[in-house]
Amino acid sequence: MAQLARPRYNWKEFWAQREQRHQPAPTPKAQGTPTAPGLAGLARKVASTPEGNRNAVLHWAACRVAEGGYPDSAYEVLAEAARTAGLPNSEIYKTSRSASRQRVVA
What we know:
This protein has six helices and no strands. By secondary structure, the chain is mainly α. It has a domain at 35-105.
């Protein structure tokens, strides 16, 4: 009785291709350096946010600053934008501090 020919698999290649397909997407931080227009856009968003959503938007922007590798002076740019939006200094400090702590934990 004749044996059926089975194809030979290159298992190393199979697993290498499988690993490539399941690689996570590169993070924005790895794609480049922080830019002034990016920070300006975040500040514009914070400054134009209406009452009722200001803390959440400031926190979101501060997290983007932390993730993006911006220098610490970028938080002052966001703080000035938050003052323009009407947030008191105490709220700005608490919100920015919360976002910077999340950077350390993550």
